[in-house]
Amino acid sequence: MVTARLEDKINILVVGGGGREHALCWKIAQSDKAGKVFCAPGNGGTAADARITNVDIPVTDFAALSDFAKNNSCDLVVIGPDNPLADGIVDFMQEKGLTVFGPRKEEAKLEWSKAHSKQFMLDHKIPTARFAVMHDFETARKFVFENDWARVIKADGLALGKGVFVCDTEAEATEALSAIFKEGRFGAAGSTVVIEEKLIGEELSLLLLIDGKTVLPLSACQDHKRRFDADKGPNTGGMGAYSPVRLYDLHKDAIEQQLIKPIEAALKNGTMKFQGMLFAGILVGVTHGSRESKTAPIPYILEFNARFGDPETQALMPRLKSDILPLLWASAQGSLAQEKIEWYDKASVCVVLSAQNYPESSSKDKVIEVGELPADAFVFHAGTKLDADGKKLLTNGGRVLALTALGDSIEKARENAYKAIAQIKFEDMACRSDIALKEVGQCLST
Prior knowledge:
The protein is α+β, with helices and mostly antiparallel strands. The chain has four domains: 100 residues, Rossmann fold (3-Layer(aba) Sandwich), CATH 3.40.50.20; 68 residues, 2-Layer Sandwich (Dna Ligase, domain 1), CATH 3.30.1490; 140 residues, D-amino Acid Aminotransferase, Chain A, domain 1, CATH 3.30.470.20; 99 residues, Alpha-Beta Complex (Glycinamide Ribonucleotide Synthetase, Chain A, domain 4), CATH 3.90.600.10. Strands 12, 15, 19, 22, 25 and 27 form a six-stranded antiparallel β-sheet that branches. A five-stranded parallel β-sheet has the order 3-2-1-4-5, sandwiched between helices. Strands 10, 11, 16, 17 and 18 form a five-stranded antiparallel β-sheet that branches. Helix 8 runs antiparallel to helix 9. It starts with 9 loop residues before the first strand and ends with a helix. The mean pLDDT is 93.
């Protein structure tokens, strides 16, 4: 494998069209190693940035994407979304001779099969909630009835972040099983379910750059999955995030021992193969239902994703002091041990601006107005597009924009974020009002 460091300017193709991809393109374009930056298919935000060129090719057309990358001398392809990874886009492109950031299909199974992911954790002694894997409604319903700890229901496959049901009662769990098995709400992704113990604690997200041998953690984030304030309502793709996370600092040593070291050992002994970004959803300060844990705090791994998180990426990129391009390149080339990551001494708070009825429905063709933003605020586009004349910005999705602001503290970053949101308007715009509020309260009390 080539292990040379990045020396010359390179052309980059980023595959995807959401907020994560806009944030990645925005950061990549700042690199003095970046030549041409393409985004396929991109969105209104990438289209409006003179440093980025949108390419009208869907993420599902592997052949057209590969041909474009080769014909435009793209030295590196960066894969953003989960679906093409699960469908083997990296395998396909590598066979065409392209250098790609992202895991191969079998490696990405840690995300696209929750049952496989849980077994991996079990095999490598990575703490996770007890679980069972079920393949039909009646067996699953009987298991829920017989085990009062079994209250988290997960569709096994990819479900746009919406295939997880955290239930309080047997009736709610049964309703979730019915939605998956009987209604077929998640299609083939719901032919198998993972039923888990309901653990009570606080979540954080940790993104790990991996080059097949070396693990390099990014700064921790906390995501807000539920649609409404106080973590009410349905799960979404993410309504906001912030970084850094005080809770991570408190449990950093335990996370190192219980998560990172087992992964490093698995890479070394060959029981794990992975190159790209591994996203760990972690629960800390855990109690088992109403029973307090009698042992020292253990970080439990809720799930793995095989790519950059969204909206965690939008929260992280403005904090990242290091040039991201050498990091992506080194991960793809197997030379990550030579790299280090530096962060600005700033906190970030990212608030997602969505359609009023998201996740049930999206917004389409509504004019978006963005006023003058302060220097410490950044807008990353997700569900947006430009009109036919390329002049007006229009809505084109459920999660429309992500507003990220920096500050000297989480409290100041949060204040800056919500002030900046006042400069943005579109019909039926909605957002949570409590992103990072709990963190502010905890920081003020210590």
